Every structure is written in C-alpha cells, then in structure tokens.
Inverse folding.
C-alpha cells in the first residue's frame, strides 16, 4: 500500500462535505459525529488507522460493509481498483452515492441491503472493511474473503468492541489479531446484538 498517497488524500478530504449542515462546524474535530438514522461518521484518526490496517492495493477489489456518509468509501476508492459498498439505510446510501459521484469516483458499486451477508455475486474480495460492530465474526464475510485477503471489523458487545484484523492464509486458515478497543454502531442483521 502507498501510505504517502493515502495520507495525502486523507488530508485533502474535507470531512465537512460528508456531514449535514448542523454538524459541519464540528467536522475538524477528531471525534465521531451523527449522520442521521442513528448512525455516525467515525473520528478521522480511526478511519485512517482502519484503512492502514486494511492495506488496500491499487489492484484490490474491496467490499465495504456500511457506506454511511461515504467518507471511508472515498478513501477506499482512491486506494483500490474497485469498491463494492453495502448500506442498509437507503437514504444514507443515496446521499453517499451523490457525494462520491460529485468527487468523480467511477470505481464504486452500490447496494442497499443487509451487509452482514456481504455481496456474494462479486466475491471473492481482496479486502473487506466493516464499519459497524458485529457480535461475532460473520461466516459469510469470511467466506467471501479471498485467499491472502484482509478484513478489518469491530467485534464485541454493545458497550465495547475490539477492532480486529482478520487474515486468510494461502491455505485458507483464518487468523484474528486484536488491535484496540473501539465503539461502533451495530451491524444490523443476524450478526448484530439483538
């Protein structure tokens, strides 16, 4: 991964473009902000760290679970060949798509639906980014991860999760490395908490 390219683009990306009018004044703060429908945009430092952990390459096919505001999507699309992004809330997905098209991205495919089951039609994926917290590791996402692939996902309880790097070896073995404690909104669907 070209870290300098990532950091240069990250610094050029105006977070206020990805939030609603009443939140724009807080966009430069390194904290999560509400984006409506009970969802949030993560703090910028965490978005950057998760992208670094994922290590997207210029030829990577990436699955993103939770389009949200489109902020993370923009970073992934800049660093990868293709991004397939899934969002459960149609109004969020529509706003994110408009923003990303305004930025000139043409390498993003959008789907409205339950991200916990991934997007099987385009699997396998070299990288999977999950921007909502699961109660346990979703089997469907593991199955859609390519050999040699990487997935970043928060896993845990409603109050606290562990940001986890999941890697799949050339022999298909799954390794899970705990990175740090985080707090995300719930990954709705069968891998949520309810």
């Amino acid at each position: 991964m070209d870290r300098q390219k990532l950091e240069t683009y990250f610094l050029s990306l105006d977070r206020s473009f990805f939030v609603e009018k009443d939140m724009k004044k807080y966009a430069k703060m390194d904290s999560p902000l509400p984006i409506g429908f009970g969802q949030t945009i993560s703090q910028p430092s965490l978005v950057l760290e998760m992208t670094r952990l994922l290590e997207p390459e210029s030829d990577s096919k990436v699955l993103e679970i939770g389009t949200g505001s489109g902020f993370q999507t923009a970073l992934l699309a800049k660093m990868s060949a293709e991004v397939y992004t899934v969002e459960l809330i149609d109004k969020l997905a529509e706003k994110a798509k408009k923003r990303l098209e305004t930025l000139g991205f043409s390498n993003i495919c959008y789907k409205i639906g339950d991200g916990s089951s991934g997007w099987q039609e385009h699997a396998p994926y070299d990288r999977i980014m999950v921007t909502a917290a699961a109660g346990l590791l979703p089997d469907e996402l593991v199955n859609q991860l390519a050999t040699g692939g990487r997935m970043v996902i928060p896993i845990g309880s409603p109050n606290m999760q562990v940001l986890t790097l999941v890697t799949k070896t050339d022999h298909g073995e799954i390794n899970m490395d705990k990175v740090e404690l985080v707090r995300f909104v719930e990954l709705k669907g069968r891998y949520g908490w309810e």
Q: What stands out?
A: The chain has five helices and nine strands.
